[in-house]
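Why does residue order matter? Because the sequence determines the fold. Keep that principle in mind as you read this record.
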Amino acid sequence: MILPAGYSDDARALWDAATALNRAAAAVSPSVARLPPLLFFTDPDRTSRPWETAARLPAGSGVVYRAFGAADAIQTGRRLREATRGAGVKLLVGRDADLAETLEADGLHLPEREARQARSVGRAHPDWLLTAAWHGGRPMTEGLDALVLSPVFPAGGASAAKPAMGVAEFGRWIRDVDLPVYALGGIGPDNVASLTGSGACGLAGVEAIQSAFRS
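Structure:
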């Protein structure tokens, strides 16, 4: 999909890079084609009014809704569900399977330490898209559709204290994993081109995606 008029140059740079990575990965593993090329990760502190960004995302993208126990989790989640349905965007919920069920989400994103739950979650929800965070080392892959490896570049939020691995190290990690892997952490329009040929199945981000796709 080519973005229509009305999108920023930054949005085009991110979307073009994400879809190019997805196509390249799908040429090797055809199942990658069903994965969203671009994942917008929400954060209660860093992504205000995330449903507005979700409504502007290209069809086929995905949102990972991380409520982190917020008091308005269901209210915000319902607004996100409405926005994603209207835009043709998949909605994944971070960690909370009960919330995902309540919102009629399309999947679940698990923390790295809880990735082992993917198999049981998949049995209960065979149609869900299941992803998990990964920060290097030996990952748990059973039952998952994809991993999200971070931080590739210096990042904010919870990854601010973690050293950036860089593109070369990212590529080395994912070559040994039999799952599609998203690149996350500090990715923006200014450095996204460096991920060409890395083997990533797509891009994930927080503030850079919100900024690029703000209404």
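The longest strand covers residues 129-134.
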